Every structure is written in structure tokens, then in C-alpha cells.
């Protein structure tokens, strides 16, 4: 699934930029993904605590497959729609995809903890990160290479094949009974209960807020097509490598963390890694060297992987079983959608500051946010995950 998502993101970014030549439209791709995802996330978390999580995942994968097949059709029988309406049909497909991804995230997070014993949560978080990053490494490079070598139609065909496979494979996973809820709650009370739980947990709230603002301001993924085409001059294949570089760094670090998860001085490690991520993005924003840009993105992935594993372990160990769907949905609003909103922020700021100015501004904001969090969240700063597992 991650492989398909990253292949698709690489192709869509390049296709939209070729269709319109607008950095703002690159940001709109993220916005059309994020808004529906945010709108449905809280209800999706409520649903994941009430209904069979595997069935929710299968239904969402079905709609993601339909979206991939529609993008594939835009390169053939439906190509006239792009000729007439430019990128707007693509935005519509991305909107539907955003709804599906809004529902699937809480279901997957909640389902995993039904499969894995509690004492293995830190290791499972690292293995999940390894699996995620493996797809994120291969997907962008593969998408860029296939697009550059065989064309957009073949690339979207590969995307459809990759999302179709997990759709079929999930039918082979046995269902798991849901944890019993102590009392029945109305929808509003159910959603508010999950929100109150997060707001009262200083460690969880601090980790979510730190990651949210870092991703919101620090990410530069939406502008990679601009860097590949107009600053580094490396084309669609180079774009694939630029997108893959942070994921390769994250993959290697995530694999290391499967053996040595950050259980000691976890809060300080988290803050240091988000700071390191901001510095890497600052270097990338100012670089005009392809190799230096790759190195900066690679190291940003290394730092990001550690923060993801720490935050995932915090959520898994501190969340009651019957509230996992709702807490995961809140995390999705905080973190998952900040990727797409961050893409929109990058597009808007690039419109006024230029692509380099946009990345430098975002990286500087990320570094400042780390200092604010260090001062304002003492419990997060002193966190030791070994005391929770």
C-alpha cells in the first residue's frame, strides 16, 4: 500500500506541475488530500472502536484502488478531461483518496495492537516503520524511473497493481474481536472522550504537537518537483531519487531501531531528532548540489524515523485498548494531515518567497518550535519509555 501511495504521489506531483506549471497547484494536491482526511478522521476513529477493523481496512483499500484505476484512465480513455479541465479531475480523485486514507489510518493503528503483545510494542513500532519506509524508499524511485522510461500510463498501471495486492491479501488475515467497551456512548461524547484523553496527557499532546508543527513547516516534499526541474536540473528520474532519499535514511534507522528502540532518555532523543530534521531541511533548501541535497534529505529521514518510533511507542503504550481508534484519529489530524497541509503551506509560501525561501522559512520555524517545546513540556523532555513498556 505504501509503495502504491508513493508511486502515485511522485507521478501526480510531476503531472500536475507539467499541466499547470504552478507551485500553488502542487500545494493544492496536498490540500485536497488533507481536508477530507481531517473531516472524517474523528468519526473514523470512533468507527474503528465499534466495528470490525479489518473490514474497514478492506473497504478503504477498495476505494484507493478505484482512485488509482481512475488516474490510470486519465492517461487513456479519460485523457480528454485533463485536456479540458487541466488538474481539476486529478484534484477530485485525490479528494476521494483523502477520505479513504482518513478512515484507514485509525483502523490500521488499532488493528496492529490486536495482533502484537504489549511487551513487543516498541519493536513492532520499529518494524512497522521499517515496512513503511521500505515502501517509501522504493516507491518514489520506482515511480520516477518507470515514468521516465516507460511513460505515465505504465507508471499508473504499476500503482494500481501495487494497491490491488494488499486489497486481496487482507482477506487472508483472520478477524479479531473488538475490545469490550465499558459503556455505550453517543457519537459526540465518544469523540470528546478521546479528545479529552489526549489533551490531559502532556507527554502525548507534546509529542503530537511537536511532530505536527515540524512536519507542517519543515517538509519540502511538495516542492521537490520544482527543485528537480528548475534548481537541480535532474528531471523526473532525479525527482524519484530526491523523494526516495529521506525514506532510505528512515528505512535504515528504523531497521536499527527494531533491535535497539530508544527506551532511555526518549524525550530528549525526540527533541534532538526533530532539531536535526530542521537543520537538514535548512541545508537542503540552500543547496544547489544534487549530491548535497540527497545527503541532507537522507539525514532528515534518519532523524524523522527516530521521532516516528518514539511517538508511535508513546501512543501504543499510553492509550487504553478501547480508545485506540479515537486516539489514532486525533493523531491523524495532528500528524498525518499536517503532511498534506504542510504541502499546501509550502506551495503558498513558495508563491511569495520562492521555493528556496519557502524551505528555509519552514526549516527555521521547525528549529524554533523545538526550543519552545523544550521549555513548555517538561514531562516530554524527561520521558523514559522504559518505564512504560
UniProtKB/TrEMBL annotation:
A GO CC term assigned to this protein in UniProt: plasma membrane
Domain Major facilitator superfamily (MFS) profile, first and last residues per copy: 1-381
Keyword terms: Cell membrane, Membrane, Transmembrane, Transmembrane helix, Transport
TM region(s), chain numbering: 26-44, 56-75, 87-113, 125-148, 154-173, 203-228, 240-257, 269-299, 352-374
Subcellular localization, as worded in the UniProt entry: Cell membrane
Major localization class: membrane
Record membrane topology: Multi-pass membrane protein
Molecular function (Gene Ontology), one example: transmembrane transporter activity
PANTHER family according to UniProt: ENTEROBACTIN EXPORTER ENTS, INTEGRAL MEMBRANE EFFLUX PROTEIN-RELATED
Name assigned to this protein: Transmembrane secretion effector
Source organism: Leptospira terpstrae serovar Hualin str. LT 11-33 = ATCC 700639
Amino acid at each position: 500500500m505504501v509503495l502504491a501511495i508513493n508511486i502515485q504521489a511522485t507521478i501526480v506531483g510531476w503531472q500536475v506541475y507539467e499541466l499547470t506549471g504552478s507551485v500553488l497547484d502542487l500545494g493544492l494536491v496536498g490540500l485536497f488530500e488533507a481536508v477530507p482526511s481531517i473531516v472524517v478522521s474523528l468519526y473514523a476513529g470512533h468507527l474503528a472502536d465499534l466495528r470490525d477493523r479489518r473490514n474497514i481496512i478492506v473497504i478503504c483499500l477498495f476505494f484507493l484502488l478505484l482512485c488509482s484505476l481512475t488516474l490510470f484512465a486519465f492517461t487513456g480513455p479519460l485523457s480528454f478531461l485533463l485536456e479540458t479541465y487541466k488538474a481539476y479531475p486529478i484534484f477530485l480523485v485525490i479528494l476521494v483518496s483523502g477520505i479513504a486514507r482518513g478512515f484507514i489510518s485509525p483502523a490500521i493503528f488499532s488493528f496492529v495492537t490486536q495482533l502484537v503483545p504489549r511487551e513487543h510494542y516498541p519493536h513492532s513500532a520499529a518494524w512497522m516503520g521499517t515496512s513503511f519506509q521500505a515502501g517509501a524508499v522504493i516507491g518514489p524511485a520506482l515511480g520516477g524511473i518507470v515514468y521516465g522510461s516507460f511513460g505515465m500510463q505504465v507508471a499508473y498501471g504499476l500503482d494500481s497493481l501495487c494497491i490491488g495486492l494488499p486489497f486481496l491479501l487482507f482477506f487472508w488475515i483472520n478477524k479479531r474481536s473488538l475490545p469490550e467497551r465499558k459503556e455505550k456512548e453517543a457519537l459526540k461524547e465518544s469523540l470528546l472522550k478521546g479528545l479529552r484523553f489526549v489533551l490531559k496527557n502532556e507527554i502525548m499532546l507534546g509529542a503530537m504537537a511537536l511532530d505536527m508543527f515540524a512536519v507542517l513547516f519543515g517538509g519540502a516534499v511538495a516542492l521537490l518537483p520544482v527543485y528537480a526541474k528548475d534548481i537541480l536540473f535532474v528531471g523526473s528520474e532525479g525527482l524519484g531519487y530526491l523523494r526516495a532519499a529521506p525514506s532510505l535514511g528512515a528505512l535504515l534507522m528504523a531497521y536499527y531501531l527494531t533491535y535497539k528502540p530508544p527506551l532511555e532518555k526518549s524525550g530528549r532523543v525526540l527533541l534532538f531528532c526533530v532539531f536535526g530534521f530542521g537543520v537538514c531541511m535548512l541545508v537542503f533548501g540552500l543547496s544547489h548540489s544534487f549530491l548535497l541535497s540527497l545527503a541532507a534529505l537522507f539525514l532528515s529521514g534518519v532523524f524523522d524515523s527516530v521521532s516516528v518510533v518514539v511517538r508511535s511507542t508513546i501512543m501504543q503504550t499510553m492509550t487504553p485498548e478501547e480508545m485506540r481508534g479515537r486516539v489514532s484519529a486525533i493523531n491523524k489530524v495532528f500528524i498525518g494531515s499536517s503532511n498534506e497541509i504542510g504541502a499546501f503551506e509550502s506551495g503558498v509560501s513558495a508563491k511569495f518567497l520562492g521555493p528556496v525561501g519557502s524551505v528555509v522559512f519552514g526549516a527555521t520555524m521547525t528549529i524554533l518550535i523545538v526550543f519552545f517545546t523544550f521549555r513548555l513540556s517538561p514531562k516530554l523532555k524527561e520521558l523514559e519509555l522504559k518505564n512504560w513498556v
